[in-house]
Structure to design on (301 residues):
């Protein structure tokens, strides 16, 4: 029998303690923990997706707003490119009018080329 | 993943990167010791298993904070013992005046089983008479082979205190279980 502070494990005492404190159903216990870990991993994945959803929707809304603004401004610039005054000042309508009802393709082309 | 040669730190690293199988291997490896310690602390198996489960799941959630440079067993044991103490603090521990011996395993005859049950009752009573820290120290040292340094880390006390606790616990258990221990040698 060993009594030293520094001795190694007491085999007989260890066996008695293990037998008395023997955890039952080891495989079932480990299986239960594994199932909880898998369930938590699934919950975590959904939590991450849910966490992304709100900022994602906000970002999508902001992007849609920015796109709408850009399209509106772009359409405004396009409209500015050919104004009514430009159209009136151009010689093309006058030439076309001068050609009368018989104004053909030649008259249109001649007016356009002559305008440059 | 159940390969016993894979080091705890390697499994813990994989677990920290989200590998549940690796953590399962660590649970498979260390569950007997942590369940035993929880039983030594709480005195009944259902509470001990609840505490062990809470502690192991807490360890899974905290695995990213485990420092690989330190041994894994005391880190895990400390978390499980904290879970056991929390359970006891919440006063949900089922009444247990003494450690209840676990159910006998099948296979042996009824007389032999009766003898084993009596032995377990006697050992459980002797253990229950020890202060908590001595109970844990002697269980971890003699039943599970933890070195003094790891027990000290798990219990948060100096190594010299663990040596003293093991010494005094052994002396008390030997006095209470003398004839049983002699029969086993």
């Amino acid at each position: 029998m060993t009594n030293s502070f520094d001795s190694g494990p007491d085999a007989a005492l260890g066996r008695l303690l293990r037998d008395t404190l023997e955890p039952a159903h080891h495989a079932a216990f480990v299986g239960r923990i594994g199932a909880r870990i898998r369930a938590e991993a699934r919950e975590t994945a959904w939590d991450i997706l849910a966490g992304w959803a709100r900022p994602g929707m906000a970002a999508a809304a902001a992007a849609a707003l920015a796109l709408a603004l850009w399209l509106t401004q772009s359409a405004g610039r396009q409209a500015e490119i050919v104004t009514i005054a430009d159209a009136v000042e151009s010689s093309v309508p006058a030439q076309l009018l001068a050609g009368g009802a018989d104004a053909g393709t030649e008259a249109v082309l001649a007016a356009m080329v002559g305008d440059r | 993943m159940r390969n016993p040669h894979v080091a705890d730190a390697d499994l813990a690293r994989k677990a920290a990167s989200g590998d549940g199988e690796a953590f399962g291997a660590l649970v498979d490896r260390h569950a007997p010791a942590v369940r035993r310690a929880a039983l030594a602390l709480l005195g009944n198996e259902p509470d001990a298993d609840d505490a062990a489960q809470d502690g192991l799941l807490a360890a899974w959630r905290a695995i990213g904070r485990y420092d690989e440079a330190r041994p894994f067993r005391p880190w895990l044991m400390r978390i499980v013992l904290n879970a056991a103490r929390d359970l006891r603090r919440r006063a949900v521990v089922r009444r247990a005046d003494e450690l209840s011996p676990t159910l006998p395993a099948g296979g042996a005859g009824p007389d032999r089983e009766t003898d084993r049950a009596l032995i377990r009752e006697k050992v459980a009573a002797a253990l229950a008479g020890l202060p908590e820290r001595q109970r844990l120290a002697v269980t971890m040292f003699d039943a599970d082979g933890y070195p003094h340094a790891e027990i000290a880390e798990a219990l948060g006390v100096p190594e010299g205190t663990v040596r003293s606790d093991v010494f005094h616990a052994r002396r008390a258990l030997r006095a209470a279980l003398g004839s049983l221990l002699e029969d086993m040698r």
